[in-house]
């Protein structure tokens, strides 16, 4: 946030995305990464941490985050114990970097996810420009409530990525009908929050996506009884040994996931 407000982004490019667009990197990405990675690794040195922006100097002191981690550990106690080697933490220091450079700050989030044996268990999505944090812990609760469930067998609003909205809009209309409203948005974290806040029924993505983009949202949805799966219906895995890229597209929702997944699979059958 401080970098964005100073207007000194020091923007670079990490290369091209699979869609051919520039993949930007800013001082905000790196600053957020160093604080998050440094604080978590200092508080929990035995666990594996995967961050989008891994650089040298990651173990710099991060006093604020470290103190918060200790406070949280004191708050929740030690009622859940798992082997350290079973835990992988996924960090996205700044989701929606492109929108960050365009000053579309509502889309910007920072995310942390705790996976145990490859399953997303704790997800935290923070909106730094709204000073708002949403979290969920599977089996333990969340600081938000799921939107009301509707028995109406319709999918009215689908949120998709701004970067390739046309391709996914076509898929959404084939699956859910021509009247479905397709809303392009930036950032995977923001799109999950649209589901949690009841502004959209489904989040649909048809191409490759990095796992640090979706792990926190996956855990948050699971804590509320929702689901995020590949388009073939399989669960996403977040073990350290697996690939950092998910290739199978995804469908996420709080309610009616099975019905919507069936609709997508009818028009986009799983590849053999």
TrEMBL record:
Q: What's a GO biological-process term for it? A: phosphatidylinositol phosphate biosynthetic process
Coiled-coil stretches? none
What is a single molecular function from GO for this protein? Answer: inositol monophosphate phosphatase activity
SUPFAM superfamilies referenced in this protein's UniProt entry, alphabetically: Carbohydrate phosphatase
Per its UniProt record, the required cofactor names are: Mg(2+)
Q: What's an example GO cellular component term for this entry?
A: membrane
Could you list this entry's UniProt keywords, alphabetically sorted.
Hydrolase, Magnesium, Membrane, Metal-binding, Transmembrane, Transmembrane helix
Q: Where does Mg(2+) bind?
A: 52, 92, 94-95, 213
Q: Name one Pfam family in it.
A: Inositol_P
Q: Where is it mostly found?
A: membrane
The subcellular location is: Membrane
Q: In which pathway does it act?
A: Polyol metabolism; myo-inositol biosynthesis; myo-inositol from D-glucose 6-phosphate: step 2/2
According to Swiss-Prot or TrEMBL, what is its membrane topology? Answer: Single-pass membrane protein
Q: Which reaction does it catalyse?
A: a myo-inositol phosphate + H2O = myo-inositol + phosphate
**Superkingdom, taxonomy of origin:** Eukaryota
User: Which EC number applies?
Assistant: 3.1.3.25
Region (Disordered) residue spans: 1-27
Q: Which family does it belong to?
A: Belongs to the inositol monophosphatase superfamily.
| Protein name listed in UniProt | Putative inositol monophosphatase 3
Q: Give the organism the record lists.
A: Amblyomma triste (Neotropical tick)
């Amino acid at each position: 946030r401080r970098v964005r407000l100073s207007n000194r982004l020091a923007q670079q490019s990490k290369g091209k995305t699979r869609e051919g667009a520039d993949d930007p990197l800013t001082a905000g990405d790196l600053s957020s990464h160093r604080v998050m990675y440094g604080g978590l690794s200092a508080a929990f040195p035995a666990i594996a941490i995967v961050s989008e922006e891994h650089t040298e100097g990651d173990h710099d002191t991060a006093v604020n985050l470290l103190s918060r981690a200790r406070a949280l550990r004191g708050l929740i106690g030690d009622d859940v114990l798992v082997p350290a080697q079973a835990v992988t933490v996924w960090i996205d220091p700044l989701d929606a970097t492109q929108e960050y450079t365009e000053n579309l700050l509502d889309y910007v989030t920072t995310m942390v996810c705790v996976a145990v044996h490859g399953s997303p268990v704790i997800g935290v999505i923070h909106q730094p420009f709204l000073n708002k944090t949403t979290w969920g812990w599977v089996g333990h609760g969340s600081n938000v409530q799921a939107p009301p469930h509707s028995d109406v067998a319709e999918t009215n609003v689908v949120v998709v990525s701004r970067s390739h909205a046309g391709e996914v809009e076509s898929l959404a209309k084939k699956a859910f009908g021509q009247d479905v409203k397709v809303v392009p948005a930036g950032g995977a974290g923001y799109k999950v929050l649209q589901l949690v806040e009841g502004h959209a029924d489904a989040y649909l993505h048809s191409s490759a996506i990095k796992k640090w983009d979706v792990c926190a949202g996956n855990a948050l949805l699971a804590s509320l009884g929702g689901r995020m799966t590949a388009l073939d219906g399989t669960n996403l895995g977040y073990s350290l040994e697996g690939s950092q890229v998910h290739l199978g597209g995804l469908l996420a929702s709080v309610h009616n996931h099975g019905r919507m997944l069936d609709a997508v699979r009818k028009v986009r059958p799983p590849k053999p």
